[in-house]
Amino acid sequence: MEFRLLRFRRKKQTEAAVSKSRRTWFGKVATLFQRSRLDDDLWDELEELLISADVGVGTTQTLLQRLKERVREDRVTEPQEALRLLKEEMVAILEARGNANEATSALDATDEIPLVLLVVGVNGVGKTTTIAKLTRRYTEEGKTVLLGAADTFRAAAVEQLQSWGGHLGVDVIAHRHGADPGAVAFDTVQAAKSRKLDVAIIDTAGRLHTKSNLMEELKKVQRVLANQGAAAPRVLLVLDATIGQNGLAQARAFTEAFQCHGVFLAKLDGTSKGGVVLAIVQELELPVLFIGSGEQPEDIGVFDAGEFVEGLFTSLDAN
């Protein structure tokens, strides 16, 4: 009973997060398949809608190719049946890097304490709020958490993280403004080890993906953490869902510089173009692990491909 309740809540959260996408572009996709037959006009309009929904040109072409092959092989003539196949192919793309449970388990799996999470991303994507959400997730699971304020450059960044730490009841390791981020990261992990805490989450300064010197600095932080004898840090890339295809360029630069373990897709509730999730997974071969759907610590969900796709087309309230 408890598992079913948790699953229902997760579905409702996902459904709410993609409501703008469902009411706009993907609602138009669903309407498209209410026609009486499959024809060239339908395929052309479907391609246009998917690209407009930020699925991206390459991913859209892959998706349409797979769908047309399924329609041909299964001898499908009814548009509603073709829509079902479209959903299946969307889920297949999203699960190509592992399903939700496998992906998040891979992130958390370590035989050493603490689990070290390095949270990275460009300016303004919501990294600090994301850290608050991750902290809430781990503490609700009964794990102990320590935060590291390695964003030593942005004005009030340390204070913002300390405010969240106080609100959530966890300590924050911080140095003076302008201090070496690597030193903050080092002290955070050492403190977590000495206190035998479960998780160390380290904030980093937002940086433009085009600034090579700042990316090198972030690599230094990663090297410092990797040389401490603790478990190798997991790198979690935070992307802003509202910036669409621009997010792909950001993600590509980070994945080329680091071994990123997955994406936290923030502000999913703020976009009508949720199709960018497909492009992230297909083009970057990087799993989406979590979604953010609000400003509060509890506004976090484990990404589930099936629930995400179904939410793009159907509201639970309509079932």
Kindly describe this structure:
- This protein has helices at 2-17, 19-23, 25-32, 40-52, 57-73, 79-94, 100-108, 127-140, 157-168, 181-194, 212-226, 246-257, 276-284, 305-313, and strands at residues 115-120, 145-150, 171-173, 199-204, 234-240, 260-266, 288-292, 300-302.
- It is an alpha/beta fold and 319 residues long.
- Helix content is 53%, strand content 13%.
- The protein is elongated, with a radius of gyration of 21 Å.
- Strands 3-2-4-1-5-6-7-8 form an eight-stranded mixed beta sheet, sandwiched between helices.
- The protein is built from 14 helices and eight strands.
What is the number of strand segments?
8
Low-confidence stretches: none
Q: How far is it from the N-terminal to the C-terminal residue, by CA?
A: 20 Å
Helical content band: 40-55%
Main sheet overview? 8 strands, mixed
Structural class: alpha/beta
Number of helices: 14
> What is the average of the pLDDT values?
85
- Taken as a percent bin, the fraction of beta residues is 5-15%
Main sheet: strand order: 3-2-4-1-5-6-7-8
Please compute the radius of gyration using only Cα atoms.
Answer: 21 Å
Q: State the order of secondary-structure elements, H for helix, E for strand.
A: HHHHHHHEHEHEHEHEHEHEEH
Shape: elongated
